[in-house]
Amino acid sequence: MCQYQSILLRVGFTCLFHITVCACTF
């Protein structure tokens, strides 16, 4: 699930919008 969310960041989502994504990404 983290991998999928990580793709969203690349598409143009921001860390402020998905805090959990940042945790998975970093």
From TrEMBL:
Organism: Anguilla anguilla (European freshwater eel)
Protein name listed in UniProt: Uncharacterized protein
